[in-house]
Amino acid sequence: MENRVEGGKELRIHCKSKDDDLGVYTLKTLDDFIFKFRPNIWGTTLFYCSMDWGEGQTHWFDIYIFDRDYRRCTNCQWIIKKSGPCFYDAGAHKYDFCYQWNH
How many CB atoms lie within 10 A of CB 78? Predict the structure, then answer.
């Protein structure tokens, strides 16, 4: 996940799964946060992240959902913007799968 929040804002990220808490990280513009894991054998792996950039709201998003992501990436890449996260489409070589926040 790379911080592309408009206005040069620092991005605070806190990611978790059912079993793992990855901690809280603060990213400056264009900094990234990388984590590695192996999907579980049941195909139910889910990582979700809360994110804020100091404007009084916390947003969250399911950054990895097995059913959505397992076949489309082994190295999932996201950029984070105020409007929501955008997933990198390796075939098109651009971040063109943008999502709204879960809130």
Answer: 24
